[in-house]
Amino acid sequence: MLLMNLEQRPVVFEDIGRQVLATGSRKRPEYFIQAIDGISKDDINRVARRLLKSPPCLAARGEVKTIPSLADIQNGLLDTQAREKIKTVPLNRSMMQDAQD
User: Fold this and answer.
1) Could you list the residue ranges that cross the membrane (predicted)?
2) How far apart are CA 89 and CA 67, in angstroms?
3) Residue 70 Cα distances to 54, 66, 78, 101, angstroms
4) Is the pLDDT of residue 65 over 90?
5) CA distance linking residue 26 with residue 12, whole number of Å
6) What region, left, alpha or beta, does residue 8 occupy, with left being phi > 0 and alpha being psi -120 to 50 degrees?
7) Mean pLDDT, residues 12-25 taken together
8) Structure confidence at residue 25 (pLDDT)
9) How far, in Å, CA of 101 to CA of 96, rounded?
């Protein structure tokens, strides 16, 4: 997918521009292929553990009446048995009002 996007000239030019603006230089596609290939299962687990150490945040837009509560989402992330018990719980009116403000 990474290389397929770079088959069109406008996409290549956009990629070069973004890289130069963001980092001051351009890296060839081979650099990113090697970086992706160098990611191990342990790397992914380490990052996931670090991200899951802090409590999740919840933001919603649109129809919010049936989203799970933040507590249910937190429990689902912490415990596999709790994940099975997550129910869709309607938000109370004060929460819905806060969401509309």
Assistant:
1) none
2) 7
3) 13, 12, 12, 19
4) no
5) 11
6) beta
7) 93
8) 94
9) 9
3-class secondary structure, 11: helix
Q: How far apart are CA 73 and CA 39, in angstroms?
A: 28
The four Cα atoms 7, 13, 17, 23 give a dihedral, to 10 degrees, of 40
| H helix intervals, 1-101 | 2-5, 9-23, 29-37, 41-53, 70-78, 80-85, 93-100
Task: Confirm if 73 and 56 have CB atoms less than 8 A apart.
Answer: yes
Q: Are 88 and 69 in contact (CB under 8 A)?
A: no
Q: Quick one: how far is CA 64 from the chain centroid?
A: 20
Contact partners, residue 10, CB within 8 Å, separation at least 6: none
Residue pair 44/51 in contact by the 8 Å Cβ criterion: no
Residue 88, pLDDT > 90, answer no
Tokens matching residue 37: 């290939």
* Confidence (pLDDT) at 77: 75
Give me the pLDDT at residue 89, please: 45
